[in-house]
Design brief:
The chain is mainly α and 84 residues long. The chain has helices at 3-15, 20-36, 39-51, 55-67, 71-82.
Length: 84
């Protein structure tokens, strides 16, 4: 399974109301994707921090993803840098 697909699968498993075991599996897969530096997972983690109001932490993950060419992360980090 490629990294992007694994990241998306992990996010879906977390979002659809799975069993606790399935949620744990999804979390572990998402965590592994972040640790690998998967730009989609990093962007989603940044979005989570943004929703919680932690802009510096969100910017950190957006920056990591943007360095790998992730377009959404690039836009988010540009917006953050303009509004500091």
């Amino acid at each position: 399974m490629n990294n992007v697909l694994q990241s998306v699968l992990a996010l879906v498993m977390l979002a659809v109301g799975c069993s606790k075991e399935q949620e744990d599996e999804g979390y572990e897969q998402f965590k592994a994707a972040v640790e690998r530096g998967d730009p989609e997972a990093l962007t989603e983690l940044g979005m989570g921090w943004l929703e919680r109001g932690d802009l510096p932490e969100a910017a950190h993950y957006f920056g990591e993803a943007a360095e790998q060419g992730h377009e959404k992360a690039r836009v988010m980090i540009e917006h953050y840098n303009k509004n500091k």
